[in-house]
Structure formats: structure tokens, C-alpha cells
Write a structure and sequence with these properties.
This is Glycosyl hydrolase family 32 N-terminal domain-containing protein. The protein is an all-beta fold. Helices cover 1% and strands 44% of the residues. The protein is globular, with a radius of gyration of 18 Å.
């Protein structure tokens, strides 16, 4: 593989669309990116699930719309290979009248594919929404991220400014894995911010959780865990400057490319202006804490 050095933003569809919530996948020959497409010219919130591919992270193919409609399918979390198919998690985000944000009927969904090109229609995973006791009366579930661990599937999600987690033996039957408390809440944050956009990667020491604080200037947070339920060392990264995005970096999704490149790779979006404006950036790291816009050289 080439020694990547990127010029951010790497995927920018302005002025027609804003690119948010990127989810990267390396299939062994090309990168696939799934992302939220925000229709910039619309006065109401119109979201679609987009897909594009690249071999070098700089030149991207034509954008395909994988899911659209009044449900506002968006915020892809990640893609897992399960048996002979790929599983993609995403959200629906229909706003109530007078709002630009998804309402209480926002839910989590899965899509299935055998070739990463043709996808089945989204299937809702919890029609009842959030049933945890900490949900402050809200059934809303957004920002999913799938993890396979100990013979189960786990799905982190956002509700009431906190992160919860579901578990399932088969991707069909789900239950709250932490019904009495969120796994991350504003009380855990360095500055009390609410939190969204979880991304979990497995490390030799356990799990690392990337998350987005909901605050001015955004930013990227990181925490560690042994069991997906209790997180420690919750902190914000000293991240790359984003002069191309005045609202700051957010919504990190991290891909393990250590075998191919010797590094972790991050896709994120940079916030621009108002009403969901954004474009996608890429960063690289050897230790998950320090990130650069080029693959860092090994220290000798």
C-alpha cells in the first residue's frame, strides 16, 4: 500500500451536500466510505445514506445513495462481516414539525449486503426504542456502533445526551445491556458535555472508545474499558487543527490498519457553519492518542 499523506478535507460535496458521520471499511483492495449526506439547499432536514470508494483516500468515486426517504436514514456506525454477508448499522432521524433534529421516534437499523454494493432495505432492530431506566422518558436511539465480543453482538447508541449499549446473540433479538445506568454520561465528561457518535476499537489491553462531545468547537474524546460497560480515563484528544472547518473536528470513526500500514486510521467530519454543514477528514496514529495527517514514521 502507498505511504498515505492526505490533504484534508478528503471528501467534500459542498455546495450540494454536507458529508457527516463517516464510516470507513477496507475490503482488502479499496476503501469504502459510508456517510450521512445532508441536502444543503433544503429548508427542512433532508438526510441520505451515501457511499463512495477510493484507493488512495484522495480521489473518490461517484457517490451512490444507499438509503433515503422520510425516515432520514443516516449516521452509519460501522460495517461487520458476519457469515457470508456484511452488516451496516445506521439510524433513522425524522424531525418533528418545526425542528431540524430527529425526534423521539428516531431508531437504530441494520442493512445487509453480500458485495458492499447492493444492500437490502434497512431493518429496525428495536421498534420500542430505548427502554433503559435512565432515558428520562425518551425512546430515541441514534448513532449506533456494532461490536462483536464474547459470542454476542453489542450496539452502542445515544439517548438523552448519554451512551447506552444493547446486546444480542443473533442481531435479531436485543436487550439493554446496561438498563440502570448509561455507560457514558455528562457526569463522566471533563467539562460536563453531553456525548454522541461512539466508536469502539479492540486493543491488546481491552477496548478504546472514541466519542464526540456536544460543545462549541466540538473535539474528539477517548476512554478505555475491559468490558464495554465501564469506561475509565475519559479525556479529550489534543487533535489536528481544522482550518477548513470552523466548527472543529467530531464524529471520529477509527479503522485498524496496523497490519497494512502499521497505524490506526481515523475518518472524522469537520463542522462548518450552521445546519449540519461539514466535510470529511482523515488522520493516522500509532498509539490512538496522537494523530497526524500523514502516516507517521517509525521512531528509531
Amino acid at each position: 500500500m502507498p505511504n498515505f499523506s492526505v490533504q484534508n478535507p478528503v471528501l467534500d460535496l459542498d455546495p450540494q451536500y454536507s458529508v457527516r458521520d463517516p464510516a470507513l471499511l477496507w475490503d482488502g483492495s479499496v476503501f469504502h466510505c459510508f456517510f450521512t449526506m445532508v441536502e444543503n439547499a433544503s429548508e427542512r432536514t433532508v438526510l441520505r445514506l451515501g457511499h463512495s470508494t477510493s484507493q488512495d483516500l484522495a480521489r473518490w468515486g461517484d457517490v451512490r445513495i444507499l438509503a433515503d426517504g422520510p425516515e432520514n436514514f443516516s449516521s452509519p456506525g460501522n460495517v461487520l462481516r458476519v457469515g457470508g454477508e456484511w452488516i451496516l448499522c445506521l439510524q433513522s432521524y425524522p424531525p418533528p414539525p418545526g425542528s431540524i433534529y430527529g425526534g423521539d421516534d428516531s431508531r437504530l437499523w441494520l442493512m445487509r449486503s453480500r458485495d458492499l454494493i447492493s444492500w437490502d432495505k434497512p431493518q429496525m432492530i428495536c421498534a420500542e426504542g430505548c427502554t433503559a431506566s435512565w432515558n428520562h422518558g425518551s425512546k430515541r436511539q441514534i448513532d449506533p456502533y456494532l461490536v462483536r465480543w464474547k459470542g454476542k453482538f453489542w450496539c452502542l447508541y445515544k439517548n438523552s445526551g448519554c451512551l447506552g449499549v444493547l446486546s444480542s446473540p443473533d442481531l435479531l433479538h436485543w436487550e439493554e445491556a446496561s438498563p440502570d445506568r448509561p455507560v457514558i454520561s455528562p457526569q463522566d465528561m471533563p467539562d460536563g458535555s453531553t456525548v454522541e457518535n461512539p466508536c469502539v476499537v479492540e486493543t491488546p489491553e481491552g477496548f478504546a472508545l472514541f466519542f464526540a462531545p456536544c460543545r462549541e468547537g466540538r473535539g474528539i474524546g477517548l476512554a478505555y474499558s475491559d468490558d464495554l460497560l465501564t469506561w475509565r480515563d475519559v479525556h479529550y484528544l489534543d487533535f489536528l487543527p481544522t482550518p477548513w472547518a470552523d466548527g472543529g473536528p467530531t464524529a471520529a470513526m477509527v479503522l485498524d490498519m496496523r497490519r497494512e500500514l502499521g497505524v490506526w486510521m481515523m475518518a472524522f467530519h469537520g463542522e462548518r457553519g450552521e445546519r449540519f454543514g461539514a466535510a470529511m477528514g482523515i488522520a493516522f496514529s500509532r498509539d490512538l492518542e496522537h494523530w497526524e495527517s500523514a502516516v507517521p514514521l517509525e521512531k528509531k
